[in-house]
Specification:
By secondary structure, the protein is an alpha+beta fold. The protein has two helices and four strands; from the N terminus they run H-E-E-E-H-E. It has a single domain (about 5-25, about 40-100), classed as Alpha-Beta Plaits (2-Layer Sandwich). The chain has helices spanning about 5-20, 65-80, and strands at about 25, 45, 50-60, 85-95. Strands 1, 2, 3 and 4 form a four-stranded mixed sheet that branches. A hairpin with a 3-residue loop joins strand 2 and strand 3.
Length: about 100
């Protein structure tokens, strides 16, 4: 296991999720509000000692294959971190209307 900070691990998770077409991190600021400085994607990730929870918005359906792809991507991102054996909880907080 290599030593990675929580911020580095969060960045790895967000980068992994960017490769999963159909899901995006559920952030408190909509991604199209470019007037708000910074990247808020990491706010959707909670790194707990035993559980990693990620809040997501689905932009297409069906959900099961998207969540399987996201789980695999996040597991790969967690490999070698202090959270590699944590339980993974993916929470879909919203489904974009375009998904229907």
């Amino acid at each position: 296991m290599t030593t990675t900070t929580a911020r580095e691990t969060t960045d790895r998770i967000v980068a992994a999720l960017e490769k999963v077409d159909g899901l995006r991190p559920a952030t408190p600021i909509a991604p199209d509000h470019s007037w708000v400085p910074g990247d808020w994607s990491g706010a959707a990730v909670d790194l707990g000692p035993e559980t990693v929870q990620i809040r997501l918005i689905a932009t297409r359906l069906p959900l099961p294959p998207l969540l399987e792809a996201a789980s695999a991507a996040v597991r790969a991102a967690l490999d070698g971190t202090g959270w590699d054996s944590a339980k993974l909880r993916l929470v879909v907080t919203d489904i974009d209307g375009a998904a229907f």
